[in-house]
Each structure stands twice: as C-alpha cells, then as structure tokens.
Write a structure and sequence with these properties.
The protein is mostly helical. It folds into two domains: 155 residues; 56 residues, no CATH class. Helices cover 70% and strands 2% of the residues. Strands 1-2 form a two-stranded antiparallel sheet. A hairpin with a 6-residue loop joins β1 and β2. The relative contact order is 0.14. The N terminus is likely disordered.
Length: 244
C-alpha cells in the first residue's frame, strides 16, 4: 500500500486526516440512506459534509495557524460540558455536586489558561468564549474562502438546515395527493429529490478529496472528470439562474 506523504505542520496533518475521514464517512452514510429514498435524512448529512469540507478548506488556506485554532477549540468545547454540569446541578438543587464541578472547572481553567485566552470574549459580567474555532459565524468562514461556497451558503445551506432541524417545511412537504399510500406511489416524487441529493454529495466530496490530493501531491482529477461526464454532478451545485 502506498504511503501518503503529507508535507505540513503536525497540527494540520492531524486536522487534515481526521477531517477527510469524517467527510468520507459522512459521504458513505449518505450512500446508505439514498437507496431507500431517505433523502430528507440524507439532506441533514449533506449539510454536515458541506460544513466539514468548508471548515477544512478554511484551515488549509493557512495550515499552521488555523489548524492550531481548530485543534485547540476542543478545549473550549470540553470546558462547556464541565460548565453545563455546574449549571445543571445548581438548577437541580445539588450544591455539593455543583461545588465539585465548579472546583473541577477552576482547575481546568488554570491548566488551559493560555489556550482559553485565545478564544475568550471581553465581558465584564461573565466568562464568555467564541462560539466557533474560526470566527463568530460560519458565514464569516464562507466569505473568507469565497465562491462557490458563498453562493451555496445562501442558496443551498438554508434548505439543508430545514431538514437538519426538522422544520415544518421539511416535515410536511411535499404534501402529496396519492391514490394509494404505497412505496411505489411515493417513488415518483422521491426519486428526483434523492438523485439531486446524491449529486450534491458527489460535488462536495470531490472538493474535499481534491484538496487532499493537493496536500498529498496526488493527481486524481481524471477520475472525477470521467464521473462528471456521465453523471453531471458538478452542475447540480450551480446557481439555477446562471447559464453554464
């Protein structure tokens, strides 16, 4: 088996390998849902795949500094769970347990003060941290990496969020008038939506994979060119009003 050679800082190598694996596993999970026409649930995974790919694209622009921000943010996330235990025990009226976790939180803050300082928000009333490893919002990340991500954030991402949050529009539509409630009757409506989700996932996975090729000095563009010549998956992510 050919070994991958990653010429990059250690932190970026970790973020890169774990992110690519996460993207690919999400892509495979979408593939498990779509044969049964579960396109609604697959849309939620497309959102995960798109967001993970966008985050990796952002990190790869400045590997050394941004991989560090990405990896270190796990400290902020872990702190949030300790704080949650303090708050929940206070709410339930368990002062001894609340004090126990409050002491653990103080020890944690002391041990990781230099890391937490990079994400702390100035607030005189309470301790607050940035909600993301990168910047205040995902939109800021998308603006930084530019097109086609920015158009997709405006045009595609809201739909994926509908499904991820089980919004009424995702749950109730399409509201079909069927003569019979059978799998075959639904397939007429489910098949095109399922196909579109499949094409979206291919387009996103291609970007993540080609980014991995640039990091590992591999060239596999021909495979995707051939695949697109047969399935036309790339055009699925384009703005519907922009001619090819």
């Amino acid at each position: 088996m050919e070994m991958l050679k990653i010429t990059a800082p250690v932190a970026f190598a970790l973020v890169f390998m774990k992110s690519i694996t996460y993207c690919f596993n999400t892509f495979k999970a979408i593939g498990l849902l779509l044969p049964e026409f579960y396109y609604e649930q697959a849309n939620a995974l497309v959102r995960i795949l798109w967001e993970a790919s966008a985050n990796l694209q952002w990190v790869a622009q400045e590997p050394a500094s941004r991989a560090k921000l990405y990896a270190q943010f796990t400290v902020v996330e872990h702190r949030k769970f300790i704080q949650m235990r303090v708050n929940e025990n206070q709410r339930l009226g368990f002062p001894d347990m609340a004090a126990k976790y409050a002491a653990e939180l103080r020890e944690f803050d002391h041990a990781f003060e230099s890391v937490l300082a990079e994400y702390r928000i100035a607030d005189t009333k309470r301790t607050r941290f940035r909600p993301r490893f990168s910047s205040p919002t995902l939109e800021d990340v998308v603006r930084d990496i530019g097109e086609p991500w920015l158009m997709e954030y405006r045009e595609r991402y809201p739909l994926w969020c509908f499904y991820a949050h089980a919004s009424p529009g995702a749950v109730l539509f399409p509201n079909l008038e069927l003569r019979e409630v059978t799998k075959e009757a639904f397939e007429e409506y489910d098949r095109p939506r399922t196909a579109l989700v499949a094409l979206w996932s291919m387009a996103i996975m291609e970007r993540a994979y080609l980014l991995s090729c640039s990091v590992t000095n591999r060239r596999d563009e021909g495979y995707f060119d051939d695949l697109d010549s047969r399935l036309h998956f790339r055009r699925s992510m384009r703005h519907p009003d922009v001619p090819e």
